[in-house]
Write a structure and sequence with these properties.
The complex is a heterodimer of chains A (114) and B (112). Chain A has strands at residues 5-7, 10-13, 19-24, 31-37, 43-50, 53-57, 65-68, 75-79, 88-95, 104-105, 109-113. In chain A, the strands form two sheets. In chain A, strands 2, 4, 5, 6, 9, 10 and 11 form a seven-stranded mixed β-sheet that branches. With 114 residues, chain A is mainly β. The termini of chain B are far apart. Classes of the chains: A mainly beta (114), B mainly beta (112).
Chain lengths: 114, 112
């Protein structure tokens, strides 16, 4: 069964450094998302992406965050200057050809900021 | 707040028993989805139920939706130790947004 894959599984970065989290969505999906889950808290929406542009973003997704779909398969989340509070599990998700389809999640990248 | 909220927060049962988890939300929805998360792992999609549907089945899973009460339930029948996980409901709300809003989840433990 097709799945969303994320790399790396764990990223350790010094505060202030840039980090790029990578995702390969399901191949025929058109809608892409990033969510995060701080340890012990709810899963929170960050951003949605469709037709090569951001369709919605949350208050968390400030100027330090950006997303890109550099080619036909990858979807990346960049944090320019990481803060301690960016430590979380980051999930990529994708959904199908039309709106309102199930969102399928990857296993996540655990980001630890030191 | 638009958030879905599950109850109970934790549920412990014996293998073979049924497990029922509930979810409530506050504003009108397009869809409600249930997910499972094993400890430290990603979210596995279980079922999507649309606002015009009342019940859906998938294997040992049964989901109901009552839009008048703004609530949903997930029933797992004949539970197995492998069902031990956290279960979340997630809603996308009317008004155009695709984003999912998650509850805090129910932590289910199935004892062998």
């Amino acid at each position: 069964e097709p799945e969303v894959t994320q790399t790396p599984s764990h990223q350790v970065t010094q505060m202030g450094q840039e980090v790029i989290l990578r995702c390969v969505p399901i191949s025929n999906h058109l809608y892409f998302y990033w969510y995060r889950q701080i340890l012990g808290q709810k899963v929170e929406f960050l951003v949605s992406f469709y037709n090569n542009e951001i369709s919605e973003k949350s208050e968390i997704f400030d100027d330090q965050f950006s997303v890109e779909r550099p080619d036909g398969s990858n979807f990346t989340l960049k944090i320019r200057s990481t803060k301690l509070e960016d430590s979380a599990m980051y999930f990529c998700a994708s959904s199908g050809l039309t709106r309102r389809q199930p969102q399928h999640f990857g296993d996540g990248t655990r980001l630890s900021i030191l | 707040s638009q958030q879905g909220e599950e109850d109970p927060q934790a549920l412990s049962i014996q293998e073979g028993e049924n497990a029922t988890m509930n979810c409530s939300y506050k504003t009108s929805i397009n869809n409600l989805q249930w997910y499972r998360q094993n400890s430290g792992r990603g979210l596995v999609h279980l079922i999507l139920i649309r606002s015009n549907e009342r019940e859906k089945h998938s294997g040992r899973l049964r989901v109901t939706l009552d839009t008048s009460k703004k609530s949903s339930s997930l029933l797992i029948t004949a539970s197995r130790a492998a069902d031990t996980a956290s279960y979340f409901c997630a809603t996308d709300f009317q008004g155009g947004s695709e984003k999912l809003v998650f509850g805090k989840g129910t932590k289910l433990t199935v004892n062998p």
